[in-house]
Write a sequence for this structure.
């Protein structure tokens, strides 16, 4: 039973971090229908900014972590303003190509710094002793990851439901032309979507960096690793990202725990999430909670 | 009279200069590797090792008045770029080539054969040597490294037959040693390989570790890069299953081949890497000696930071350059022209009394027509108080596989 609980908790933890990493994709897609291919690079940037503030500037880790979210918020907003604002109204594929270019630019900038080709670790911050939950162990980093994901999701849900800006973002997501006609600034909404995506990416980067250590390849790969989560949840659904993240996390852990190494099976933890994704997409092509658009002609 | 003397002196000086210029040659040494992109954490210090040793060789006039020009190109770990770089290097007339990744070495193997050019890669994949005459591995292959670790487990494990799991990279690089290690077991190495785990981009390896624990695994031999090993070790530390002494009962002892270890692993998993056992054929700056003194001197001379100076990848880059330049020096010493053919012959003759000791390795480099694995001796290191320390003396694995 302890084994089952351990896998369950590990699955929830990993799933939460997947969800947090996937949020940036969803926020941008939700408002502008653009897939940001450079999302993994922004995750890595957030982690490196937190590290630089802590180690080079001497800022306490916890403050660096939140500062990195603020800095990435404004950096992403600037990226949208400089590179993407002028592409409003252009075909989506053009915008996606620009995000591919952005990925190369951020890669290049990071490779010019020591972060591109060096391995590092955040200074020890959390207690080394793990938490014990019903016989299962969880590290403090993992607990913080889950709590932070919950707080960010709750805050974003409140924001989209109750604030004027959030409602404006939903309106733009629904119909850009109609939104403009009632006075909503679509460029401002796009900028905010990118900024919020940057903020969540930095949070994810900080958590992942604490778990895996700071290695650029490993960090930016999470931009791709969480892609199935985004597809499964529905590209424009925040709740979907959370549910899909947890599903993926649980599938991976239970597959690794019960299938891999038995009956000649290997690597099911890597493959099974994709198989389930394909099967689910057969029945729900827009993902679990994605918007099903019907066009009448 | 004075005017005539001056003219004669200037004329003589000009003639001498012309003669010396005509005699001094410049030889090109080239490498294509990942300075950016995947594995650049290894590639960047490796490139610096190559660059610095060439500068050092020129400054020390190792080839007399002849100079070596080094061509270093970033291929971002992309085989197509490596191939393009290699073709450009051939146009430059290189007599010897340094390559990097397993993928590109396997892909370009036929090109090396066609061009008949000696190639020393950073990859120690045993498969590089299959159907190849021109690839020279600097040290023992990954297969032999894993076999060496397995032998160490068997010799030092108490109780019955040790239960071992392999934790490998999901690629040709990672899978290479699996069959060779199984072969060693078939030949008599008394060890039970319980499971071979190919890792992914894992955030949590709890399930894997607990599954292996439930199967009674006592040792995990890793053959991958540092990052996944760091996650594995951190999870094992959290679960409280890391053996504090070799083979501690009820715990797991972790071991790894060349690219799993070094200071990068300690940087990624500072406390969790304690008691990690690692094998390589290189000397480490945490164990000072003539080779590491030379390495630190060169790094300091050319303004490298501490991290680079103490990186085993810097040592690795330096060492392959040492071997390449030594082959040039020997060809010159033997009165031969320095070209692809003579350097290939010099490398193959590097054995017996002609073995080359670069000091940066745990034994001499010994190549021959039938043996293209350079340093035969491997050293086991263990992380103790945050640094790698030698365990025992360098040794040659008994169940070694030669291709």
């Amino acid at each position: 039973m302890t084994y089952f609980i351990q896998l369950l908790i590990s699955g929830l933890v990993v799933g939460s971090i997947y969800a947090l990493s996937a949020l940036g994709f969803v926020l941008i897609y939700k408002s502008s229908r653009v897939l940001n291919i450079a999302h993994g690079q922004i995750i890595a940037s957030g982690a490196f900014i937190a590290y630089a503030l802590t180690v080079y500037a001497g800022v306490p880790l916890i403050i660096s972590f939140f500062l990195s979210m603020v800095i990435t918020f404004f950096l992403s907003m600037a990226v949208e303003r400089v590179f993407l604002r002028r592409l409003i109204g252009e075909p989506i594929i053009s915008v996606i190509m620009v995000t591919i270019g952005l990925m190369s630019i951020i890669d290049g900038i990071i490779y010019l710094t020591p972060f591109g080709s060096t391995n590092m670790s955040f200074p020890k911050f959390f207690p080394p002793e793990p938490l014990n939950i019903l016989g299962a162990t969880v590290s403090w980093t993992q607990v913080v990851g889950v709590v932070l994901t919950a707080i960010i999701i709750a805050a974003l849900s409140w924001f989209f439901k109750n604030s004027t800006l959030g409602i404006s973002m939903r309106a733009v997501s629904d119909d850009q032309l109609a939104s403009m006609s009632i006075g909503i600034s679509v460029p401002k909404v796009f900028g905010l979507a990118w900024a919020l995506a940057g903020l969540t990416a930095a949070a994810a980067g900080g958590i992942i960096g604490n778990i895996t250590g700071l290695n650029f390849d490993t960090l930016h790969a999470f931009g791709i690793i969480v892609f199935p989560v985004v597809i499964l949840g529905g590209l424009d659904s925040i709740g979907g990202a959370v549910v899909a993240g947890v599903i993926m996390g649980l599938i991976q852990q239970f597959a690794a725990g019960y299938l891999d190494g038995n009956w000649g099976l290997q690597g099911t933890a890597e493959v099974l999430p994709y198989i389930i994704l394909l099967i689910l997409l057969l029945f729900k092509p827009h993902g679990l909670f994605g918007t099903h658009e019907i066009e009448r002609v | 009279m004075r005017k005539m003397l001056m003219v004669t002196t200037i004329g003589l000086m000009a003639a001498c200069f012309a003669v010396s210029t005509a005699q001094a040659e410049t030889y090109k040494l080239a490498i294509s590797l990942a300075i950016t992109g995947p594995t650049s954490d290894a590639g960047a210090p490796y490139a610096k090792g190559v660059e610095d040793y060439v500068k050092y060789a020129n400054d020390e006039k190792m080839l007399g008045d002849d100079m070596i020009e080094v061509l270093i190109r970033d291929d971002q770990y992309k085989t197509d770029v490596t191939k393009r770089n290699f073709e450009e290097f051939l146009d430059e007339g290189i007599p010897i080539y340094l390559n990097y990744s397993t993928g590109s070495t396997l892909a370009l193997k036929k090109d090396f054969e066609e061009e008949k050019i000696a190639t020393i890669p950073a990859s120690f994949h045993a498969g590089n040597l299959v159907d190849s005459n021109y690839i020279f591995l600097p040290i023992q292959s990954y297969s032999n490294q894993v076999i060496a670790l397995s032998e160490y487990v068997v010799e030092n494990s108490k109780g019955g037959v040790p239960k071992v799991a392999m934790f490998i990279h999901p690629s040709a690089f990672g899978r290479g040693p699996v069959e060779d290690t199984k072969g060693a077991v078939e030949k008599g190495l008394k060890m039970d390989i319980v499971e071979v785990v190919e890792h992914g981009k894992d955030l949590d390896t709890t399930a894997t570790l607990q599954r292996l624990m439930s199967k009674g695994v006592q040792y995990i031999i890793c053959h991958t890069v540092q990052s996944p090993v760091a996650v594995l070790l951190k999870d094992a530390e959290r679960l409280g299953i890391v053996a504090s002494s070799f083979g501690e009962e009820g715990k797991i002892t972790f071991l790894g081949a060349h690219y799993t270890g070094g200071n990068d692993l300690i940087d990624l998993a500072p406390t969790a890497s304690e008691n990690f056992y690692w094998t390589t054929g290189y000397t480490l700056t945490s164990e000072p000696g003539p080779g590491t003194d030379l390495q630190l001197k060169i790094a300091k001379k050319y303004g490298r930071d501490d991290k680079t100076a103490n990186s085993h990848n810097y040592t690795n880059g330096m060492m392959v350059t040492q071997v390449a330049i030594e082959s040039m020096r020997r060809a010159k010493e033997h009165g031969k022209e320095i070209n692809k053919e003579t350097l290939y012959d010099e490398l193959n003759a590097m054995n017996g009394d002609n073995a080359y000791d670069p000091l940066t390795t745990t034994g001499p480099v010994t190549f021959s027509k039938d043996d293209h694995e350079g340093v035969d001796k491997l050293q086991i290191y263990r992380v103790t108080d945050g640094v790698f320390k030698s365990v025992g003396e360098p040794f040659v694995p008994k169940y070694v596989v030669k291709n």
